[in-house]
Amino acid sequence: MDFIGAYSIPNLTFILKGFLITLEVAFISIILSFLLGTLLGTLRYTRIPVVARLTAIVVDIIRNLPLLLIIFFMKIVLPQIGISMSPFWSTVVGLTLFEGAMISEIVRSGLNSIDKGQIEASRSSGLSYMQTFWNIILPQGLRRMSPPMVSQFISLLKDTSLAIIISLPEIMHNVQILGGQNFNYIIPALILAAALYFIVNYTLSIIARRLESKMH
User: Fold this and answer.
1) How does pLDDT run across 118-161, given as a tens digit for each residue?
2) What positions does the domain ABC transmembrane type-1 occupy (predicted)?
3) For a Cys staple, 18 with which of 83, 104, 143, 174, CB 3.0–4.6 Å?
4) Structural domains for the chain
5) Which residues neighbour 194 within 8 Å (Cβ) at sequence distance 6 or greater?
């Protein structure tokens, strides 16, 4: 192991550039998957006959596919039908679809957890279904969803490493490159990558625990 060589300024810069891409992919995917998951979960909660059923089918299909397969599909298969994306956006779209499907279940469960008595009381007070949903159900549901949703975002950040399969220059890709240049760099580089992942994910886990404690 060569910690001094592995942690030289050029190598540290190379690893940190990869981690920056990891964070960029995660940040964009978190926002998009939250929006998609909230939409899908809401559609399933409303139980509009055809829409809810079709949404459930789509969500179940995506949730039961490996994320690696979805990312690979975005980069390799879509160009065959004229839809070409960079490794960055292939990863973002793949993560958004997969995590959005996961988050939709969190959203649906959160909305279903709201006491039916509150809904009936709101309706009897003159509020329409949509007013009840936006003012009573959704705000409370989002608070209850927060802890599991943050946990899902932690998984999303870790899952960005799967983009190594399509050569996205994220942190694990760059660690692999360094290891290929000098095998003595691989363990120090992996230790640094693990530390960076740990710092971000541990911070998110603390947020999740605090949000959960506020629920009780």
Assistant:
1) 777 777 777 777 778 888 888 888 878 888 898 899 999 999 99
2) 19-208
3) 174
4) 3-215 (1.10.3720.10)
5) none
